[in-house]
Amino acid sequence: MSNDTYPLTNSTLYNEPWLCTVQTCPLSWAQVQYDPSLAGNAFYLAMFSLVLVVQLFFGIRYRTWSFLGAIFGGEVLEMIGYIARVQMHYNPFLSNPFLMYLIVLTIAPCFLSAGIYLCFSRIVVLYGEKFARFKPRTYTIIFITADVFSLVLQAAGGALADTSPGGNSSQGQDGINIMIAGLSFQVVSLFIFMSLCADFAVQVKRYGADAREGLRRCGCGVGRFHGFLIALVIATLTIFIRSCFRVAELHGGFNGKLANDQVSFMILEGAMVVIASVALTVWHPGLVFGGFWNLNRARVTMRGESEVVAGGKNGVLLTETGVV
Fold it and tell me: Which segments cross the bilayer (predicted)?
């Protein structure tokens, strides 16, 4: 619809676009220059809601509390973000739903990546830390710390943009820049994580017989475990792609081409995170690790190795180091 349809004689609406409706103002005055798809955003909302229910079931069933906490945070934030986008469908001129979706959808995948880091530390324990550059606990601490730092930057930037007096103010732009810094840090940390995962995979492949011994003692089915590894790769890559997209989107500003391209957003943001969430649910770590997820007892053998016994009815003895 052309702007000529709405002559700028109504200075109140022009200067205070939050008073607009889709019947009284052109979309060029809105927070985004398109009408957010009701069907598309409602579908994503339903998917994240379904994932949350299944994750709660598996998390309680297998007592994977740390993983459940990470995924729960991510899925709830995704749901809030798409509720806000559904609200924007009915009135894209309101600033509160826009800022809500912008902030929560920016930070939500940090929680999903934290769940991936927790899974990787268990994988290192199973295969053997001798194949890794760091101890299992070190991977968790390093990358979850990086995740928290990224999360703080993104949240602080979002809060600064939220409290700015005007969309074009320097304070609002500073907030956007801080969010970009947080997202960029997340991209870098994810890239380093993927590089370390690839290095670990090469070492495991090189010493295949020794590496498979951990799987045998754990009782994890080889086919099921390999499916779980593929799911983690898919989840990591989709979150990485999504994070790169959000950096490019915010770098162009709210008036940029990417920020106002609904198709790009729905594919590179929504679909990527849905795929990651589904992958982490269909191949839930509880289905693979069972009682091994919770390492509840450690002692030192006469050889000086740390013995870890997995929780559950039938504890499994592994001569590796405990993880968080």
Answer: 42-60, 67-86, 98-120, 141-160, 180-202, 223-243, 263-293
